[in-house]
Amino acid sequence: MPVALESVPSLIVEDDAAGTPIAFMGIDGIKLEMLFVSPKERGRGLGRKLLEFGISEYGIKEFTVNEQNPQAKGFYEHMGFKAYKRSELDEQGKPYPILFMRRIEKEAVGGK
Question: The dihedral of CA 80, 7, 50, 29: what is its sign?
Answer without folding.
Answer: negative
